[in-house]
Amino acid sequence: MYVQLTCAIVDSDPANRQEMAAFLVNNGVQVSVQLSDLQGLPVVLGRPDSPLLVVINLDPHPQESLKKIAGMPRQFPAAHFFLMSQTVDPHVLMDAMHMGVREFLPLPLSQQKFASAVERVASAAGMGKRARIIQVVPTIGGCGSTTIACNVAASLATGAKTALVDLDLIRGSVASAFDVRPRYTIADVMDAAEKADRQLLDNALTVHSGSKLAILARPDLPEDTQRVSAEGVRRLMTVLGRMFDNIVVDSMMSVAPVYSAVMSAADLTLIVMQLNIPSAKNAERFVGAMRRQGIESSKIRLIVNRYVKRGNDIEADDVERAMGLKVSWTIPNDFRNAIAAINFGEPVVLRAPKSEIATSLVGLAGTLATPGASPMAA
């Protein structure tokens, strides 16, 4: 069951309320109510579905506002009270602490500190960020990155709650790889991202019966890709991160804002390549772009697909020297089983689990499932 962190905002300034609401939504928090004063707050907190987080701007009269809050923190112990004020008075701080207030945040607000405080509340309520985000990026068309994303996700789903997001917005084929027909797509989630609650996501995510993998498909219409935004994707990653243990993103080799949002959020990025010159050159270019955006090398994995022991255009050693990265995993060339699985609409790890390619893909998933695992050559 998915329960989202909900929040009530109390601020006399409508612009401040709107700005705070936007910030909270971007951090995966659902704003259930906005109030201009404290008068109606006890009624809100007395409801069965009362918010777990209460953000109150004490200004312009912090002492008077604090008196109105009085015993609310102890009366409603399930709520986490965040107080804000431009006045950092020791007496105000001590009074707030004695009332049982969890956080006092001076204004102007430090977004980083505030986001950390929200995460502490989410973790305490059992809704902290759990998911390990794995981005899969192709270096050339047809290199097999979608096959790898689908099979890794299906493998991870056997042992943990896993979601697969299709971010190849035009050509994406994740849904057909699992032979599912989603009712909603990632574009629909963007439209309603500010209300990313249990009902919306239950409708948007299609669960593959064979693997229990939750799938968020690409838009049906090419023109609907314009509805997918970087802000919406960041919000989606945050909300999904509280629902799942793993999120696999079938992505693209791009530094456009939508893809940069995933790149920044990802715990690991798998660069899928083949041992040929065009693929190696693109891999080198993209790894360079990632490093310039501040992505650490420890978060990048080079994955060689369709590997053969002899007959490659270039050697893995050449790639490693050029990029200063080791090839983390090699997946054997098994076109017959791979294409049969695609045509049948079932991942090869499920359709032909004893095949060499399936064994390799399951092994790859095993190195990604646990933070700190050391990848080994297949």
Descriptive account of the structure:
- It contains 17 helices and 13 strands.
- The chain is an alpha/beta fold.
- The chain folds into 2 domains: 6-124, 3-Layer(aba) Sandwich (Rossmann fold); 132-369, Rossmann fold (3-Layer(aba) Sandwich), CATH 3.40.50.300.
- The model is unreliable at 372-378 (pLDDT under 50).
Q: What's this model, at a glance?
A:
With 378 residues, the protein is of the alpha/beta class.
- Rg from C-alpha positions? 24 Å
| Portion in strands | 15-25%
The H-and-E topology, N to C, reads as EHEHEHHEHEHEHEHHHEEHEHEHEHEHHH
Number of distinct beta strands: 13
Largest sheet: 8 strands, mixed
Number of domains: 2
The portion of residues assigned to helices is 40-55%
**What structural class do you assign from the helix and strand content?**
alpha/beta
Q: What is the helix tally?
A: 17
Which class of the largest domain in CATH terms?
Alpha Beta
| The CATH architecture of the largest domain | 3-Layer(aba) Sandwich
Low-confidence stretches: 372-378
Within the CATH hierarchy, at the fold level, what is the topology of the largest domain?
Rossmann fold
Q: Mean of residue pLDDT? A: 89
Indicate the overall shape: elongated
Q: What separation lies between the terminal Cα atoms?
A: 37 Å
Strand arrangement in the largest pleated sheet: 8-9-7-10-6-11-12-13
Could you give me the name of the CATH homologous superfamily of the largest domain?
Answer: P-loop containing nucleotide triphosphate hydrolases
